[in-house]
Write a structure and sequence with these properties.
Blueprint lengths: L2 H25 L2 E5 L2 E5 L22 H8 L2 E8 L7 H4 L3 H6 L2 E2 L2 E10 L5 E4 L1 H4 L2 E7 L5 E10 L4 E5 L21 E6 L7 E12 L13 E4 L11 E3 L5 E8 L10 E5 H14 L9 E5 L2 H7 L7 E6 L4 H5 L6 E5 L2 E2 L3 H8 L7 E8 L2 E8 L16 E3 L4 E5 L2 H7 L5 E6 L3 H4 L7 E5 L2 E2 L3 H14 L2 E7 L5 E7 L1
Antiparallel strand pairs: 1-2, 3-5, 3-7, 4-5, 5-6, 6-9, 7-8, 8-9, 10-11, 10-13, 11-12, 12-15, 13-14, 14-15, 16-17, 17-18, 18-19, 18-20, 20-21, 22-23, 23-24, 24-25, 25-26, 25-27, 27-28
Length: 489
């Protein structure tokens, strides 16, 4: 073997040795001994792991049947009003002017929303804020038919309203059971916001019993279903349905900084809707059942101050004398853990459950008292502490003011902090019209006298008329605008 061949073979062998050393030192991970274990350190640039996810419904069911059941039972609602509540401005933001401000002529404001047909004879449920203060309500169906609707009743404390059209054999949605909803369950949001045809979006249940502090008032019931189904302004009053096409909620609000959908929408649970609708049909206003207690949520700081081990439940701060809870045996300091065997973790859940019952109903209330669990049968009472039905007082016309007036219900008093009041339902030629007072205005005082019914109003005006003096009329609009108006009878 000549020198050239020997050199070539040696060079090849040397190259292979270098490659092998390079492989074990550079390509192969180093090992460092740590507590008799070895941690692998890879000198290659770490790659972001790719995880395949699936955000799709199971192949075993389809949304098409639920959509088919829903679209024809959801309507477009157009209300012609003189003044719109500011209550939802924070949620509708920059779209408010578009939805509530056009067209606007001669002080007339046109608002849009959605509604759900719940019976073949024309009953439609929607949000109170959709029809609040409406002078005229127009309903457009998915087949483009248009009808005029009248208000049967409203419930500001739940943001629900019941309206009706004269019709027969309408498509409608059947009630589901919102108590059975599970987190992650698929749902559809159906609305008709732009008077086109009903639109459908899909999402899941994100949370239950959400309190988003939009209704105001201590007696308001906020126990919303939160979903990520796309809901936009104009969808208010539309349907939230399950995959069987059953109504499980009424869409009410979105949480948004821009006024457009950002992933958070909220619906009123259908079990509460059923209770409110039945009361409005039968009595004209809801019949609220009360335990007769003052409660508060339990947070970490409060639990520490009271020596409580658990943060779940609601704390009974005060038991009201002669209330249902007092008569049943509840005491200050009790922690309510469940009602009718349904867990209660916070005030929102508590309000959502109690809101489904009426005065006279007996509910099973479980509490933690010290280290003992106790259960009481509590008879719910109305706001006056009795079991009787509370009915709306009839409206009446006052010639001197030139207006139709109705006594203010307790539910309308609470958000405004009023003790008494008469609401203007219609204005004709007279003093109020000359003073620019419109429908929806609430008269609270006349010459510093509170008025809440026909006799109190006439007595206050009669005294003023006898003296031939200036009459000072004070009141407030539902949006919080206060007015003082002076005139001579």
């Amino acid at each position: 073997m000549n020198t050239y061949v020997k050199g070539l073979i040696g060079g090849i062998i040397g190259a292979l040795i270098i490659v092998f050393i390079f492989f074990i030192t550079i390509i192969k991970p180093e090992s460092k001994k740590l507590n008799n274990q070895y941690a692998i350190i890879n000198k290659e640039k770490a790659k972001t792991p790719v995880v395949k996810t699936r955000y799709l419904p199971p192949a075993s069911f389809s949304f098409t049947k639920a959509a088919e059941k829903s679209v024809n039972a959801v309507v477009h609602i157009k209300t012609i009003i003189g003044e719109k509540s500011q209550q939802y401005d924070n949620y509708f933001g920059s779209l408010k002017d578009y939805l509530y401000g056009h067209p606007r002529r001669r002080g007339v404001l046109i608002a849009f929303g959605s509604g759900v047909i719940i019976s073949p004879d024309g009953y439609i449920v929607t949000n109170n804020h959709v029809v609040e203060g409406a002078d005229k309500i127009k309903v457009t169906f998915n087949d483009k038919r248009e009808m005029t609707a009248k208000v049967i009743g409203v419930s500001p404390s739940t943001d629900l309203a019941l309206i009706k059209v004269k019709a027969k054999n309408l498509p409608y949605l059947k009630y589901g059971n919102s108590d059975n909803l599970k987190l992650g369950q698929w749902v559809l949001a159906v609305g008709n916001p732009f008077n086109l045809t009903s639109t459908v979006t899909a999402g899941i249940i994100s949370a239950k019993a959400r309190d988003i502090h939009i209704l105001g008032g201590t007696s308001s019931i906020e126990s919303f279903i939160q979903t990520d189904a796309a809901v936009n302004p104009g969808n208010s009053g539309g349907a939230l349905v399950n995959t069987s096409g059953q109504l499980i909620g009424i869409n009410a609000a979105i949480a948004s900084k821009t006024g457009a959908y950002e992933g958070y929408s909220f619906a009123i649970p259908v079990n509460l809707v059923k209770k409110v609708v039945n009361d409005l049909m039968k009595y004209g206003q809801i019949q609220r059942g009360y335990l007769g207690i003052q409660i508060r949520d339990i947070d970490a700081e409060f639990a520490k101050s009271k020596g409580l081990k658990d943060l779940e439940g609601v704390y009974v701060a005060n038991v009201i004398n002669n209330g249902g809870a007092s008569q049943a045996g509840l005491k200050d300091g009790d922690i309510i853990t469940s009602i009718e065997n349904r867990p209660v973790k916070n005030i929102s859940e508590f309000m959502g459950i109690i809101g489904q019952y009426s005065p006279g109903n007996i509910v099973k209330v479980s509490v933690l008292r010290g280290n003992q669990h106790k259960t009481f049968d509590v008879t719910l009472k109305n706001k006056n502490g009795t079991l009787s039905v509370i009915k709306n007082q009839p409206a009446f016309f006052n010639n001197e003011l030139g207006a139709m007036l109705k006594p203010l219900s307790q539910e309308n008093k609470n958000p405004l902090g009023l003790k008494k009041g008469l609401q203007v339902t219609k204005v004709e030629n007279g003093i109020l019209k000359k003073g620019g007072i419109g429908k929806g205005f609430i008269i609270t005082k006349i010459n510093n006298q509170l008025v809440s019914n026909k006799s109190e109003l006439e007595r206050a005006l009669h005294k003023s008329h006898k003296k031939q003096s200036v009459v000072i009329l004070k009141g407030i609009y539902p949006n919080g605008m206060m007015i003082s108006f002076e005139f001579i009878l």
